[in-house]
Specification:
Structural class: alpha+beta
Number of domains: 4
Number of strands: 26
Cofactor: Ca(2+)
Largest sheet: 5 strands, mixed
Strand order of the largest sheet: 3-9-8-7-6
Number of helices: 15
Subcellular location: Membrane
Shape: globular
GO molecular function: calcium ion binding
Strand content: 25-35%
Helix content: 25-40%
Membrane topology: Multi-pass membrane protein
Radius of gyration: 30 Å
Keywords: Calcium, Developmental protein, Membrane, Metal-binding, Repeat, Transmembrane, Transmembrane helix
Length: 677
């Protein structure tokens, strides 16, 4: 019985501003301020209200204001009835506006101070101030045709990144939730259980556990915290039966604003209207390092500020604030020769930058295939193995934006402590083929290698809930080929050993027999990691001498991905015919097989790429661990090591009842890219 409304303001068919979403409210209060450009008064300002949904937005009605009917220097209140000609509802609600038009040079000076742009000082601008009765405040600046010489696109570029837009993007805290266990969950013993956590538009889904009334998850989730939004944390308990039907078992809410900052709170939350409860830890901590700015106020451009940030990540501070691993600065300069998405041969491009779950975006440059953004974005680095993804979209009014191109840059590929300026070719969504256009970026990474190494052996951050994967003949075929490649390598090794046992080649069998006897007679346990170190050294020599190129496997992987486009068309055609709907159950089985094949192939490729020095940072880290293991195994008897390991495992929960289980080796391998990645 509620909605998640937000408002769009449009002129000439273009969206100039979108308000934040007010969740679960039919009487929303926004409390926002924005600057909008208006060139003439013979226009209608459209106010459109939408209900935010997970995948799309539902239209809830619209109204308009004729700017020419407003009186200068006078505040008027208007009650606008929302209408939707396609709806059967007579009463769509109303929106109340306080409007005021004022003229004067002082207001242009206010813009000058707000945007730090000296060239605006010579223009005389008019002013239209508007406010909702439900406390949205808007200031619309109107420039006369005779006095305004500034281009509309540059005007738009400066206005779109107003303080309110920055405010809507920048989070100032981090909510860390550790989901521990459930108690007496109703129906938990009859079906598989999972949890959905929602904070604003951020969603996580826990792993699905087997049938149990007292399931234990021990998972950690990080949410962005916006102190001005007053969002409630919604927690839902779901069950899934053998037929994949899902049913809501219960839910509860937590008011994040009521929790003390910088403190871990242990909460046992009873389910509303149902028996059972959930035990979890919730910690709210301030977050720094997120910013959007102009090129003239670049954070790392100031030598003193750069020195201060570098000092924070020096070696001597390796064990201070262990979660603060590094700092990333990205300058989004411009793009050239983009794909034309409109009928007029132009596009309205903007950029979205994503680092893990962190996401920021630029303003939109309208009607331009060679846009210049010239903005600086900074992110805190939570995992040095994350990949920065920069995606260019075309704004398409009320419709979802059109994809124009994408680049993915691993943080470890950026040279540390220096700007890396580059021209990057845009690629398609899967990063398999080049798209049209290039983008110019400057990247600078500062990080602490000790903190980054420690983080490598901990679980990766979970991604926000995304759409379910679909069956793809191309991906299934690719995964089968990848698994077949690894299987053939294992089979060839077995055949080699078999040929030695059968004495198919006398010389080979004699050498193998001598090596076997000597190894078994003289080998010690510490020699196992030492032998692996020798393998690292051998492969490193091949890489440095150029005898082996790491791009060969990547090229082979591209060949696997480079299937004919006809297969993609076949997939689309099969979807059109409803084939997937008709074999829904078979599809789920195929998707499961597809995922399992991908996991097996990726696991084998990651082990191979660790030894192949594909990511030098990880290979060096593995060498250090193996060297330490060699020394430990040489000086300490195996029984003591096994005893220490067993005692640690048995007492781990006694020492820390809320410890999250993890496997350091698997966590390490999860950072190593597969051939496809």
């Amino acid at each position: 019985g509620t909605s998640d409304p937000y408002v769009k303001f449009k002129l000439n068919g273009k969206t100039l501003y979108k308000s934040k979403v007010v969740y679960k409210n039919l009487n929303p209060v926004w409390d926002e301020t924005v600057v909008l450009p208006v060139q003439t008064l013979d226009q209608k300002l459209w106010i459109k209200v939408y209900d935010r949904d997970l995948t799309s937005s539902d239209f809830m009605g619209s109204a308009f204001v004729a700017l020419a009917e407003l009186e200068l220097n006078r505040t008027t209140e208007q009650v606008l009835k929302l209408e939707d000609p396609n709806s059967l509802e007579d009463d769509m609600g109303v929106i109340v506006l306080n409007l005021r038009i004022a003229a004067g040079f002082l207001l242009s000076c206010l813009i000058l101070l707000n945007e730090r742009c000296e060239r605006w000082a010579r223009f005389t601008l008019g002013h239209l101030a508007m406010s909702f009765k439900c406390t949205i405040f808007l200031h619309l600046f109107i420039a006369s045709k005779t006095s305004l010489n500034l281009g509309h696109s540059s005007f738009m570029r400066s206005v779109r990144l107003s303080d309110s837009l920055r405010k809507n993007q920048l989070w100032n805290g981090l909510v860390t939730i550790t989901l521990l266990e459930g108690k007496n969950i109703p129906g938990g013993g009859l079906a598989e259980i999972f949890i959905l956590l929602k904070l604003g538009d951020q969603r996580y889904k826990s792993k699905t556990l087997c049938k149990s009334a007292n399931p234990q998850w021990r998972e950690q989730f990080d949410f962005h915290y916006f102190s001005d939004r007053k969002d409630m944390l919604d927690i839902e308990v779901w069950r899934k039966d053998n037929k994949k039907h899902e049913e809501l078992l219960g839910k509860c809410q937590v008011d994040i604003t009521a929790l003390p900052m910088k403190q871990t709170n242990c909460l046992e939350l009873p389910l509303e209207k149902h028996p059972g409860s959930l035990l979890m830890l919730i910690a709210v901590a301030p977050c720094t390092g997120v910013s959007i700015s102009d090129l003239c106020v670049c954070p790392l451009g100031d030598p003193s500020e750069r020195q201060q940030i570098s000092q924070r990540y020096c070696i001597k501070n390796s064990f201070w604030d262990i979660k603060d691993i590094g700092f990333l600065q990205v300058k989004v300069l411009k793009a050239v020769d983009l794909l034309a998405a409109d009928f007029a041969g132009k596009s309205d491009p903007f950029c979205v930058l994503e680092l893990g779950n962190d996401s920021l975006q630029t303003h939109t440059v309208y009607k331009n295939l060679n846009p210049e953004w010239n903005k600086v974005f900074t992110f805190p680095i939570k995992d040095i193995h994350d990949v920065l993804e920069v995606t260019v979209f075309d704004e398409d009014g009320d419709k979802p934006p059109d994809f124009l191109g994408k680049v993915a840059i691993p943080l470890l590929s950026v040279r540390t402590n220096q700007d890396q300026r580059g021209c990057y070719t845009l690629k398609n969504k899967d990063l398999e083929r080049a798209s049209k256009g290039v983008i110019y970026l400057e990247l600078d990474v500062l990080f602490n290698p000790v903190k980054a190494s420690i983080r490598t052996f901990k679980p990766r951050e979970k991604r926000f809930t995304e759409e379910n994967r679909k069956f793809s003949k191309k991906i299934l075929s690719r995964n089968v080929d990848r698994v077949k490649k690894i299987t053939m390598a294992i089979w060839n090794t077995i055949q080699f050993l078999r040929s030695c046992f059968l004495w198919e080649s006398t010389v080979k069998s004699v050498i193998a027999f001598v090596v076997f006897v000597v190894t078994v007679w003289s080998v010690e346990l510490y020699m196992v990691p030492l032998a692996l170190l020798v393998l690292f050294a051998y492969n490193f020599s091949l890489v440095t001498t150029g005898k082996v190129n790491n791009t060969q496997d990547a090229q082979a992987s591209k060949e696997l991905m480079g299937l004919d486009e006809d297969e993609d068309e076949d997939d689309k055609e099969s979807e059109k015919k409803g084939l997937i709907d008709r074999i829904h159950m078979v599809q789920e089985i195929i998707i499961a097989v597809q995922s399992i094949l991908e996991e097996i192939a990726s696991f084998g490729e990651r082990i191979k790429n660790t030894f192949n020095w594909t990511v030098p940072f990880l290979s060096v880290l593995a060498c250090l661990v193996l060297a330490a293991a060699t020394v430990i195994l040489y000086f300490i008897p195996l029984r003591y090591i096994v005893l220490i390991w067993g005692i640690n495992k048995f007492t781990k929960k006694l020492r820390n009842p809320y410890a999250i289980d993890n496997n350091e080796i698997l966590d390490f391998l999860s950072r190593v890219p597969s051939d496809v990645q």
